[in-house]
């Protein structure tokens, strides 16, 4: 079996640089073929490893530092986020927030300036409070229209979320990355909604590609996971040291499940993107539904930029119903769409996002994650639920 370290295997971690997405996700991160061995080895359950001699020369020493199961997954994700790039390093974490924290907290110091989206994931709000409590100046700007440009002077780090969650706005990552680098700032992109098959932030100029693997990357709603991919070895080492220091490590079973799930990523995301577009188009036909957003809609405000930098437009659709009561009746009437938070799974889910607080959205705002069910069945279910909700 190939020995692996630092999120890249000894062969460079790339299976067929010119292969298509479907081929790469099936083969990514697998070890060299070995007679009678499984193609994807099972999870390695170990708190420690036999350790003769100098630990610095050991591929694995202690379970908080590294695990062969993590390494296979890290190699696979690196091949997807930066295909053909042998310098890319991926670090996997216990959750998406652990990955976000590793970037924001490992690189910022008192007096630094960080630019965050004002319309991003709602846990960025307590993260902002934490940073400010440490003496970091935090500026915010909405995602749409590249509004972050006006906040970059003196910044140490720009955090981009594109498409944004839950509003689905998009910004020009390359333009913002170039502007940030001119001012000496690093750039991190939350790639959760797009996945590495829909968008490659490192190719667009970002220093970090960050994501919650809990969502579409694994796609079955049974794993909490996050990751950070970097090209710069110093940045990657800083992220990896943060994981070791705070212990934000994934379980080997979770890492193995994630790697197994990658094989269907192309199939799932292609079907989900097509279904989401069908759902968005159906929702726009309804008079009680307003502000339908999906980057794949040709007249969506985000579409022109999304079409330039995204290869598929994702599974999430957002829209607004008349009020809180209408939205709750709609969600209760759905037969094929579960009322649940999170997104990216094979089973469709939706929620009234305002129930959490922290998102600047109307009370009737719904975020829907479209799964892999038959599109016609989903559309029929949504239409029937809207009819029922309208009857009160």
UniProtKB/TrEMBL annotation:
Segments crossing the lipid bilayer: none
Superkingdom classification of source: Bacteria
InterPro entries recorded: Cys/Met-Metab_PyrdxlP-dep_enz, PyrdxlP-dep_Trfase, PyrdxlP-dep_Trfase_major, PyrdxlP-dep_Trfase_small
Its EC number(s): 4.4.1.1
One Pfam family per UniProt: Cys_Met_Meta_PP
PANTHER family: CYSTATHIONINE GAMMA-LYASE-RELATED, TRANS-SULFURATION ENZYME FAMILY MEMBER
NCBIfam families assigned: PRK07582.1
Family: Belongs to the trans-sulfuration enzymes family.
Name of the protein in question: Cystathionine gamma-lyase
Organism: Streptomyces chitinivorans
């Amino acid at each position: 079996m190939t020995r692996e370290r630092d999120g890249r295997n000894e062969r460079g971690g790339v299976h067929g640089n010119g292969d298509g997405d479907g081929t790469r996700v099936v083969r990514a991160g697998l070890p060299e073929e070995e007679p009678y061995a499984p193609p994807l080895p099972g999870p390695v359950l170990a708190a420690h490893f036999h350790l003769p001699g100098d630990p610095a020369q050991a591929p694995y020493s202690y379970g908080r530092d590294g695990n062969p199961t993590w390494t296979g997954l890290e190699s696979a994700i690196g091949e997807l986020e930066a295909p053909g790039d042998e310098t890319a390093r991926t670090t996997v974490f216990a959750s998406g927030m652990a990955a976000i924290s590793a970037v924001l907290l490992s690189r910022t110091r008192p007096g630094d300036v960080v630019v965050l989206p004002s319309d991003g994931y709602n846990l960025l709000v307590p993260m902002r409070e934490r940073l400010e409590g440490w003496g970091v100046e935090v500026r915010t700007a909405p995602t749409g229209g590249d509004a972050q440009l006006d906040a970059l002077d003196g910044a140490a780090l720009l955090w981009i979320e594109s498409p944004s969650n839950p509003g689905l706005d998009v910004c020009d990552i390359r333009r913002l990355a170039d502007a940030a680098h001119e001012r000496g700032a690093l750039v991190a992109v939350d790639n959760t909604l797009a996945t590495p098959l829909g968008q490659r932030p490192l190719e667009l100029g970002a220093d970090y590609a960050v994501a919650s693997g809990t969502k579409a990357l694994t796609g079955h709603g049974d794993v909490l996971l996050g990751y950070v991919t970097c090209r710069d070895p110093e940045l990657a080492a800083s992220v990896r040291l943060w994981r070791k220091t705070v212990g934000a490590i994934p379980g080997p079973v979770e890492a193995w499940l994630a790697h197994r799930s990658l094989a269907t990523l192309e199939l799932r995301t292609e079907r989900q993107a097509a279904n989401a577009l069908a759902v968005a188009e159906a929702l726009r036909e309804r008079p009680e539904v307003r502000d339908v957003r999906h980057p794949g809609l040709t007249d969506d405000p985000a579409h022109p930029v999304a079409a330039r930098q995204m290869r598929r437009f994702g599974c999430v659709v957002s829209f607004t119903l008349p009020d809180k009561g209408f939205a709750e009746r709609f969600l209760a009437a759905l037969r094929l769409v579960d009322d649940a938070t999170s997104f990216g799974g094979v089973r469709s889910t939706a929620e009234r996002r305002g129930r959490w607080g922290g998102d600047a959205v109307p009370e009737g705002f719904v975020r829907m994650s479209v799964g892999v069910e038959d599109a016609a069945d989903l559309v029929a279910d949504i239409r029937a639920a809207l009819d029922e909700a309208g009857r009160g």
